[in-house]
Amino acid sequence: MPYSSRLPGGAFSFETASSMGHLPTVTNERIRERLARYSRPDAQLDFGRIEKLTGSAGDLDQTTEPHIRYVVAVDGSNHEYEEAFDRYPSTRVLYLQIAGVFIDLQQMQEQTGPFVSPSRIAEAIEASVVSGFLPGSFLEHQDFADPVEAFRAELFDLFATTEVQSGMLLDLICEVQRYGPAEDASAAQQKRVLLPKCPNSKCDLNESKVARRANLTVSLKTPEKCPACSCTLWATDTFRVYEDFRPDASNGEVLGRVRDIVEHLVLLGVALDLERRYPWLLPETAFLYDGDLAVFGNSARMFRGLLGSWQALWQRSRRRGQQPPVLLGIAKSGYPVEHFKGIQRAAEVAERPLPIPRQSYMRIDDRYMKEVLRVQSLSETYYGRKFFYHAADGQHLVITVPPAEGLAYAKQTEEGADDPSRFPTLRRTFEVLDRMGTHLYDDAVIPVSLAHNWAAYPLSNADKVLRVLTEQTIARKRS
Asked: Cα separation of 473 and 479, whole Å?
């Protein structure tokens, strides 16, 4: 624990360790001896197995039409701010910010010169950013004596007051639950939200099985009292993120969970609004999530509703005689990303052809996910299935794509669950990835890079951006 002192200006200065202080650890003989018992991950690669799962994107028996022209990407950032009150460095508040980009790929690629003009995107930067506040540690609310209850109330307020296109985040909870399990869908039809349990640890309904038998629900828009203990219930209690909230410690992980939930809902909300207003644009649009199409932690149960919502949107597109829009997630970090790069490096060291050449993909069956990538809880978290793709420009991309029907991963290992035919947008996904690569960062694509940086526009101003970037194009298409 470092010592701290206050500088003349009032800020705290913390004692820091020497930048060379880690050397005795990495050179420690006991550590080196123990580590020698383990092998490098790329030493166990089965190239034959990998090659059997690899195919050429061009060989997929899927349409490439219509080509993706527009890309919507959403990304968020979060920060736990310390010393919320002067001279109390343990008091913390939680901030999150969500931004997105809408890109006309054709317009971008038709520009002359090596750089993309930021002028049209910059026109939208003037608006305020969609942001949120949540209480952190050692804060006392004027109305709620219990810090956890204050956190729950503020979370509900965040969802009730944050607008996504033409609706509120709160409305998207109900939209997602419409396509969840039967009990969720039934509650959603009545504008109510099913709660997995009562937040009060002393309540009989705090046990999930009991709460499920009692059909514990709450109004979407207004708080209600628990029928068993009179504890105040909010619709956002369905996410159960409050269970990890700590009133006397850091809550960075909780904030990250909230940010992820908001990002998933926002991307869906933008797609639904685009469908309502410009349905003819959907077949030419890709919706890009920065990360895996998966929900982790206590909120994981909402993955079924997210998958169902996107699959319903795809079905409506087909009924209109359209190809469905593309949806994908791109992971920038994690062991699967490291593994994919390790495969290619190991092949180069062995002086053999790359097992996954450019414009080729690798299916990842259930056994490979569990035995090699060691990803657990597949059937309870992921609404997209993982694929490796070696893009035309050399990028190594780990993506997740949802199936047209059924779950991405079943509870029991199934042969053929990774069959590309279950993912009819796969070839168009690969095609658009080849067109929007960027070398600003390793294995990144332009929309994610823009959403991640200052050039991203706030979603509260999405109407303006849609108008700025597509008005002329839409006029041309309809004339």
From this structure: 10
CB 284 within 8 A of CB 68: yes
Cα–Cα dist 470/479, whole Å: 14
Number of H helices, E strands in the chain: 16, 20
Instruction: Judge residue 237's burial from the number of C-beta atoms within 10 Å of its C-beta, 0-12 exposed, 13-18 middle, 19 or more buried.
Output: buried
Task: Please state the separation of Cα 7 from the chain's center in Å.
Answer: 40
CA gyration radius for the chain?
24
Torsion of CA 249, 253, 255, 258, to 10 degrees: -140
Greatest Cα pair distance in the chain? 75
Measured between alpha carbons, how far is residue 92 from residues 52, 246, 306, 464 in Å? 52, 11, 32, 35
> For residue 90, which amino acid is it?
S
How many other C-beta atoms lie within 10 A of the C-beta of residue 123?
15
Name the token pair of 116.
Answer: 């993309």
Q: What is the DSSP letter of 294?
A: B
Q: pLDDT tens-digit profile of 35-79? A: 888 877 777 789 999 999 999 999 999 999 999 888 888 777 788
Distance CA 166, CA 233 (A): 26
The per-residue pLDDT for 469 is 37
> How far is residue 42's CA from residue 46's CA, in Å, rounded to a whole number?
9
Q: Which DSSP category does 49 fall into? A: H
Instruction: Give domain limits for the chain.
Output: 42-138+263-479, 139-247
CB 268 within 8 A of CB 176: yes
- Cα–Cα distance, 418 to 385 (Å, whole number): 8
Distance from the first to the final alpha carbon of the chain: 68
Structure tokens at 303: 């993955």
Indicate the pTM of the whole model.
0.86
